[in-house]
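Morning, I've got a small favour to ask if you have a moment. Here's the protein in full, and shout if anything looks odd to you:
***
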Amino acid sequence: MKTKCLIVDDEPLAVEIIESYLNRLDNMEIIGSCNNAIKAFEVLQKQPVNLLFLDIQMPRLTGIDFLKTLKNPPKVILTTAYREYALESYELDVVDYLLKPISFERFFKAVSKIYRQEMTGNGGFREKEANATDNDPYLYLKADKKMVKVMLKDILYIESLKDYVRVKTPAKDVITHQTISYFEEKLSEDSFLRIHRSFIVPIGKIETFSASAVEVPGKELPIGRIYKNNVLKVLNELHHL
């Protein structure tokens, strides 16, 4: 069964790009595109939509405000030219957040997350149940023969321990049999940053940074040599917003 996609964006070029990317994927079906949220709402009332590509900056009603009005929204991938919306997007439990201009590789990575969100086993990201009242995204990790719920907003850093990974939060450490690369693939690169072969940090938790280290609450973490250029590029871009 194909995933039915609706594109909501007031920029014709942006719509064309997403359409061209979707047409390269056999399991995707474009049911239409809209240039504002009001038209999108009408489409959602008339036919099933599995995946919504939603621009944030639109006339009349922003993508984020529109999403907040939907009681049972489809899966959503936000698209925007503005990085500063990344943290707010996490609160809305979207699949991913794409910064324009969008490369096909980054687009494919976002779409691929949809088919892996229900994974269980040693660790998995799970969508919230339909009747959940908590709007904050979370993940379940297998630790001590139990599945432990960890809120993304609580993560201070993620540390590789060879065949295990420590997820550090203010309340607890969760140690799970997993690789740090697994977390790097699953977490949005707009909100989480690989700074070292052993560390991933949430960008919003970084209090200070230098050319060699970043500081999150209660901990200074080293920046790895091979990650240095990208880390400083991302953090300096945020500094100049």
Summary: The longest strand covers residues 28-34. Residues 118-134 have pLDDT under 50 and may be disordered. The chain is about 25% helix and 30% strand.
